[in-house]
């Protein structure tokens, strides 16, 4: 009976457009996605990286807009320490026209993003990660030849006001990895707009 309930639960989540995606400890596969400069970006382009701050993002979501300066600051702080930011827009522009590739280019110019802002056209990478919100963070750590998920969730505990943040979940997780420790916590609930999928 329990197996049947679990199976039905999985079917319900799949029908509702949810995917489990990566969990902490899973090995993350590489991707090849088009950046706002027209070039394609893969994590293999960064052979010296110790890991990556993969953030599912977009153009229009007010939560993302509130976090953009913090995303820039995170890249400026941690790219030099081996953890660059890669922002992925996985929203379907047919569902949300404000998240088109052309408007991604415009937003990147306006904000002066120092990190790649790539488009998951056809939502091929999204189900692998299982991101559900924007922003949704997946912190990856290089372990040998593999990239393992070390932290999943929110950037911090206050999207509205950076000056009122009490817990810098992502920054603390990166600092833990740099010190050879495990992030604590390694999972938090992502807060933001739902990722827009075709029905």
Architecture overview:
The model is unreliable at 1-18 (pLDDT under 50). The chain has helices at residues 2-15, 62-78, 101-111, 126-129, 169-178; strands at residues 33-35, 40-41, 51-57, 85-89, 117-119, 133-134, 136-143, 146-153, 193-194. Helix content is 28%, strand content 20%. The longest helix is centred in the middle third of the chain and has 17 residues, at 62-78. The chain has a single domain, classed as Glutaredoxin. The chain is built from 5 helices and 9 strands. The chain is an alpha+beta fold. The radius of gyration is 16 Å and the shape is globular. Strands 2-1-5-4-3-7-8 form a 7-stranded mixed β-sheet, with helices on one face. It has a two-stranded antiparallel sheet with strand order 6-9.
Can you tag this structure with a few keywords?
two-stranded antiparallel ribbon, Glutaredoxin, 5 helices, 7-stranded mixed beta sheet, 28% helix, 199 residues
